[in-house]
Structure formats: structure tokens, C-alpha cells
Amino acid sequence: MYALRGVHRNVLIPKAKKLLIIITHCGIYEYLRMPFGIKNAPSHYQRMINTIFPTELSEGWLIIYIDDIIICSDTWPLHLERLSRVLDKVSGVNIKISLKKCNFGFEEIKALGHIVSGLSLGIDKNKVAEVLLKPIHKNKKDMMYVSARKIAETEC
């Protein structure tokens, strides 16, 4: 599942509002909610979302990374029970879920560069395939050539 508006859910305290003032030729503006790009915004949101699901996280069947929520189950009835439990808590704290970005009932999904299936977590083979296909450089001259080529590519 995908939680909408992530860090924007957090209302700023008055002290934080004063630190996030924006001055433009049109006037002076201040954020009312936490904007993207603030250094501690993701960790603050992660702590907030973790406090909603302490039991589920400690039981190990719920994985949450910022606004991505993954529910793991061995059986369909158990999955429906856990899904209901998570949705009840999410609606209880008024978090909206994007149905367009949700996948329900899959035995295996790709999330954050990993393959999640049941109660296991593995590496997405497509993410490492390109690295594995790269030639192995056997000497210093080859490495210097590759490094110089990479630098030239990034500068152009």
C-alpha cells in the first residue's frame, strides 16, 4: 500500500514555521506543514508511522518504509485479517491510501529494489544484473581507463 502525502501530514510547530519562511518578490510565506526536502522530515514521518503500528512491526509481518506499507502473510484468510487490521489503524489516524499504487493479494512483489514474498525478503535480480555483466578489470591501467571514461561522460 502507498500512503498519500507522506511528510506533508505533519503540522509544523511555530518555531519550525519561523525557520522555514520563504521571501519572494510577491511576499513572505511560511509553511504550515512539513515540506519535502527538509533533512529530518523522512525520519520524523517514519517515527510517526511506526508509533501507529508497534505491535504489527514487532510481530514481523508488516514492513513500512516511509510511505510504503507491505503486509506479509502465509495464507489468504490471514492476509485479509492483517489487511483489515492495518486499514482500520490507517483510517483511525486519517491516513489516505492511493489505490492506484496499491497491490493486493500478490504472492510476490517488487519493492524498494527487493523481492518480498510471504515472510521473506530477497534482492531484485534485475537491479544487480547490470553490475554482474560488467567486465572485471584485471589491472591498474584498465581501471584508470574506465574511471577517465566515467568522468568524461559526466562532464559532457
TrEMBL record:
Which Pfam families does this one have? Answer: RVT_1
Q: Which domain of life is it from?
A: Eukaryota
Q: Which InterPro entries match?
A: DNA/RNA_pol_sf, Rev_trsase/Diguanyl_cyclase, RT_dom, Viral_Replic_Matur_Polypro
Domain named Reverse transcriptase: residues: 26-115
Q: Membrane-crossing residues?
A: none
Protein name in UniProt: Reverse transcriptase domain-containing protein
**Organism for this UniProt entry:** Austropuccinia psidii MF-1
Task: Output the lineage of the source organism.
Answer: Eukaryota, Fungi, Dikarya, Basidiomycota, Pucciniomycotina
